[in-house]
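User: structure tokens for this one?
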Amino acid sequence: MKRGEIKPRAGRARRWARRTGLAVAGLAGLLAAGGLGGGLWLRHNMQEDLPQLAGQRRVAGLSAPVSVDRDALGVPVIRGANRRDVAFATGFVHAQDRLFQMEVLRRRSAGRLSELLGGFTLETDLAVRKYGLRERARQAYESSSPEVRSLLEAYAAGVNAGRASLREIPFEYLLLGGEPEPWKPEDSFLVLLTMYLQQAGPDGSYESALALMRDRLPAPLFAFLTPVGTDWDAPLTGGPLPAAPLPGPEVVDLRQLRQKPAAAARLDPVETGAVHRAASNAWAVDARHSGSGGALLANDLHLDISVPNLWYRVSLVWPTERVTGVTLPGSPAVVVGSNGRVAWGVTNAGVDSSDFILLDVDPAHPDTYRTPQGPRRFETSRERVRLRGGDEKEVNVQRTVWGPVAGKDALGRLRAVRWAALEKDAVNFEILGLEKARDVGEALSVAHRSGVPALNFMTADADGHIAWSVMGRLPRRVGFDGRLPVSWADGSRRWDGLLPPEEMPQVVDPAPGRIWSANQRAVDGDMLAKLGDGGYRLSARARQIRDSLLALERPTAEDLRRLQLDDRALFLQRWRDLLLSVLTPQAIAKDPRRRELRELVEHWGARATIDSAGYRMVRTFRNFLAEGVFDSLTAPCKQADPEFSYIENVDQWEGPLWALVTARPPHLLDARYATWNDQLLAVVDRLMEYFPAPLGERTWGERNTMAIRHRLSPLLPGAGRWLDMPAQQLPGDDHMPRVQDPGYGATLRMVVSPGHEEQGFFTMPGGQSGNPLSPHYSDSHPAWADGKAAPFLPGPPVDRLELLPAR
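Assistant:
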């Protein structure tokens, strides 16, 4: 993926969340003026929005009765006579529990958020309009097979029937003054395209950062600072790739700079060095090496966590199948789960699914650009965005034969963007075929045909086999590797359609009997060349998972569940040792405040636990050091683009940083310091200045306190106590299996053995319902937060709703 939209790192996602919060915060006076009366009015309408959970209801669109049995957590088991009726009922329960969430998901890719949220989301809407995703959704629906269209039509009919079953619209609409529009079958494609934006978006910040560094830095320094991996690499095939050497003083010598670099920005460690969002774990163990009698699959999906949670649990049953897992509200497909024969999970792949194209514009004719067929005029159109309240804004959109114009780079060069989501056959609902897969071979075939964002696909079957591949469609590049923007004007560099499914890399039943994915580079050689580099994550988390799996002789489902909660700080161990080496008796004698820091670091516990102040100190030391070191080395990039940030866009900076602090070359030392030890001590002092005394009270839990909020909770003063999840301190961090941040982490944790689903585990934050008055608004949350075991399959039914065909 090219880092963008959510990616799923914090950047754009958090900015969008802040704008959403600001938009609704402006309405606070609506209820504040009404005082108690406003609160009672809101509560009454929320009660009216609670869904019917039991009894019978006649609805148009069913061919036969469907039962919806909800367990104690509100998880439905939907039983119908055929797949179409089950799709209808899935839409029905989604609308009952998550209608407003579905609204936001379809509006995001349609560029229509501002109609509900006002001007604070205008920039987001205008940016996405150039891709024409509403038309793309319509085309994808019309080109779908009759079977898929039938299921999407049934699902849409179910959504509208579920909406009609509510006595009142969800409270979010009431507060924003909106109305839910009827659901259309193509809206499910808009939801799918929203996930494209989030998981494999086309904004290209990684590619842009690399291009700026290439243009502004000496080639050896650029090569050193932009590795594809580090010594932490843990691919499924091959090993670590060789690192570029340290550039010599003849290349760059910071001591000879005429002007010293500006002091490093003093950023909070929440932002500094922690901006790359680890985007999910998955691993599998084959039956030969498992202690559970069959193959095992584990998956935990790391994304920004909000209320309600992104996923909706279901178990779908019709005469030929039973499929259990999670759906994305707005779609009838099970995204991850098991059908009794095959289980599957996903993680963000980090592969390259978009490219910037440098446009050759004739200065004498600025309305034209060069193509292999000769000069072409830009196609132009105007997109109109309507804002809540009736105002409208327009934006001019230019398009080329390759894709929309995406503005200029830092050097003023005009660029277009080519994005896989806009390619023919790249967006579809072939993922529905996983419901019928009978072994890993069939599952891989479905994955390779599926038109979804590029994802690592992990699968296991009831015969004990396991496999990894990439799900989704990727471009076939000709003449370039896609890592940097290039011109396509002469035709020597281009996309030659999409990679055929049979050419997609895959690993099936490897000798160790284990496969793992933590967003790292998974393969090497020709397979890597096909996937490209969209910004792979640092592989420390993947290596910790790999080593733990290999150390378990015959792991069980419980072993894999415990591994999901592993908060050992193996990655930071060498940084802890480095910090201790700096805090010598001589250093402490010069500043006695350093003694407390050394004591905390000596007894840090080697885990990201909530009571460890030492862990927080080591982590912040590394982040502050990186900020200072790389600000000096990349100063020319910052001069060209004040928004440039190396550590925000290149996730592999651990390799260059460690090489620098171990070799300590004088010519690559910030000119403000006489020695590397001086710079290290300056970071120590900055750290102590940053944290209020006493340091021992600055624990990791103080920083890592949950802030899982409903998007509209700012609307009412004090509303967080009933709209948001509890502000609980939790262990875990970026570079370990238990990924945890205040508003980011595992949106689900799943362990399952296909054919033995009753032995599996599943937890997720929040609950099934989006209504705060529902008992299922937060009842799944305690087990997730506490890391407790909960069953994969729904429990005994508590409520039964029968949907009957209309007479």
